[in-house]
Amino acid sequence: MTYLPRRTTLTYLAAGLVTTALSARAARPYPDKPIRLIVPFPSGQGADILARLIGQLLAVELGQPVVVDNKAGAGGIIGTAAAARAAPDGYTLYMGSSGPLAIGPNVYKKVGFDTLKDFAPISNIASVTQVLVANPASQLHSAKDVVDKARLQPGLLQFASAGNGTTSHLTMEMFTQMSQVSLQHVPYKGSSSAMIDVMTGRVPVMFDSLPGVLTNVKSGSLRALAVSSPQRNPLLPEVPTVAESGIRGFSTIGWIGLLAPARTPPEIVGRLYAAVVKVLQSDVAKKRLTELAFTPIANTPAEFGSFLAKEVALWANVAATAGIQKE
Question: PANTHER family from the entry (predicted)?
Fold first, then answer.
């Protein structure tokens, strides 16, 4: 009989234990621990509102807590880069939107990620209308009023945004391009602080998501001038579209989707996609999404990936036409 040296025997035993542990881990059904959901914006913005709702429903469906982690800054770029660098094991997910994913790479020189290479799309969760809002004490009562005032004072009328490269910023750039006027951009660190200054009259106007402005519009703290969607929104039926207001052809809708870091195993992506579809079909989700002014989408990972490529190209054109210099 041949005896192995004690050190060699221990090495083999250790290797065997590690292999057994890894095999046991791989055999466990996903997920078997809490999931972190990165939101690249402060609390209260559209992506955060949706993430908290979907996170609660996914926690029930997946049997594990889904913890929202707000990593705000640079128009969503900081949180997005953090999500791109996370381990591709299904335990860090990302609630992305058009701002950091499609617009950000076209206005920042270094974002720390490649939208189409560094993420595994799971599903586009919902679309959201942008609303042109103004201080209720101002003389701006319509999108046409904004255009008329901008023509009388070229480059002097200010507009607020949630930050450079955000959806609220580029939606207004599209507005100025199609109406052939010039406005002065005042970027903020998040839509909440921008909205406060619009409500107090420090800045006269801005675009923001319907979920983010609806309560203040209903209370009279903000005046809704127009919606960016091709049709009027049932939650604000009296508010015309931008196109109805005289800027023909204007139509843009924000979106918020769920992604994972690239190289996340396909079976985990599939498990998450199936869970998203199931929760969005629930009566609870349908009711809350309607109340919060979101329109559910729930497309497949492949469809979401194709959509992302088109969005990146669309906003690259808007940024180039606006002459935005990458920071």
Answer: BLR1237 PROTEIN, TRICARBOXYLATE-BINDING PROTEIN
